[in-house]
Design a protein that fits this description.
elongated; Immunoglobulin-like; four-stranded antiparallel beta sheet; single chain; mainly beta
Length: 156
């Protein structure tokens, strides 16, 4: 009787996992770091430029794109431990199929392993396949540029 009950419980959890359609789409995550080195202080602003194109390289206007940002800042006086903040925003491409977004706050970096991880996710629908890309920039680099080809399902 106990083995039947155990199988029923396991089956219930498997059914719940399948019914949840897999993990959520929150892809913010941290980046492993090593060889942390103090650097001169730099300040700046995170900028993300995105160009969304068809397979024929034509712009895709008025299409939603989700931007996930992870900011990792190395803790002072530690051996490569860090604090991270994560955020995301959904923006719509303009008539030229482009987005240019600045983070609202300036950053200050003073370690070789201070970094931004940016992932963009273009949702699919009845006409378009989904697309995504990830980039990581460290220390004094914070200008991201993405060029995404999104496939129309009629082209495949």
């Amino acid at each position: 009787m106990r083995s039947i009950l155990s199988f029923a419980v396991i089956g219930f959890f498997l059914l719940a996992a399948i019914a949840s359609f897999g993990p959520d789409e929150a892809t913010n995550t941290t980046v492993p770091i090593s060889d942390c080195e103090s650097k001169p202080v730099v300040t700046g602003n995170l900028k993300v430029d995105i160009k969304l194109r068809t397979l024929q390289l034509e712009p895709i206007p008025e299409h939603d794109i989700q931007i996930f940002v992870t900011h990792q800042k190395v803790n002072p006086d530690t051996s490569c431990t860090f604090q991270s903040t994560m955020s995301n925003v959904i923006l719509t491409t303009d008539i030229d199929g482009e987005i240019s977004w600045f983070a609202p706050d300036n950053f200050t970096h003073d370690n070789s392993e201070d970094l931004y991880r940016v992932q963009i996710k273009v949702r699919g629908d009845d006409n378009w396949d989904q697309a995504d890309d990830i980039q990581v920039l460290k220390y004094n680099q914070a200008q991201f540029s993405f060029y995404i080809i999104q496939y129309n399902k009629d082209d495949i």
